[in-house]
Amino acid sequence: MSDLNSRIVEFSTDHIPERERAAFWREHFGRVMLRVDFEPAPDVAFKARNRALTLPGLQLFDAWATPARISRSGSYLADGADNVMLAINREGRASVEGGGQIRELRPGEAVVLSGADACAFHRESVGRSFTLLMPRVMIEAADVSVEDAVMRPIPVDQGALQLLDHYASWLMSRDAAVDAQLLNLSVRHIQDLLALAIGPAAGLAETMRARGLRAARLKLAKSFLVANSWRRDISVAMVATKLNVTPRYVQRLFEIDGTTFSAFLSGVRLSNAHRMLCDPAHGRLAIASIAYDVGFGDLSHFNRSFRRHYGLTPREVRGDRGRDLPVTCLSREGAP
Length: 336
Hints:
- The protein is an alpha+beta fold.
- The protein has helices at residues 18-34, 136-140, 146-149, 159-173, 180-198, 201-228, 236-243, 247-256, 261-277, 287-293, 299-310, 314-318, and strands at residues 2-3, 8-12, 37-40, 48-55, 58-65, 68-72, 83-91, 94-98, 101-105, 110-114, 119-123, 127-135, 177-178.
- The chain is globular and about 65 Å long.
- The two termini are 26 Å apart.
């Protein structure tokens, strides 16, 4: 069983001096959790109430705030985190920027942003927003084109978006323990709903028909790897058995897709490790434990692969300075 309450980090400016509020939000939510810059509107006293939930392969962020601008650019893009971000404007006026475009978000509308590219969310009035972050590799495993979806508004009445919003809100509001298997299933359901919201079911069916059985098998292979990446016994042969094909056929599926079986699996594991290193709930977990938890069997190999992938060491991403508790990671006990 997993207690979701212990994973949720809450923040309110109510008991923080006004002059310290923006700096506190910028440090703990901007720099550590979301990897974004933050600037409140200069003519309004900044107020905010936030709840954040981090799960393997999924991060949820519910926010009420006064006008402010949140942007991801510059040094934050160098962290290598290639997430898909779904921003839902629940209340108030808001707009988004990305790919040289600026779009207004009406209440209830959503938009997809790429964490690998410069983008911004501008809260223009007091209001609420809901943000979902998920590794791009998990969405593209569903054979959905993220590039085509970026900055394309998703209307408020789209069924998949409404169901996704309700499902994610249910997870955020849970006050009891949840079975680990049910929790993993919930993450996969949200992944599927996001894929449907980005690319309608009819479009997905067309793609599957066009690419045929090979595309369907590649999707199944990737989905299996994403769901089981933590297993150190996972192999080409294991996936081949699941698909009822030969190991060489599985290798060819990934080669045709422009990658390799090992590279794809390593990318999923590194993405999960990066998320855990930035998650306050895992602040006291040793880096070696994180490496083993996500599926690596050798710490030296993990460190080399991580630095090659992100350009930083795991310790640098976490913000360690040689102490047991990372100085930049906010534990639940230390949360206001």
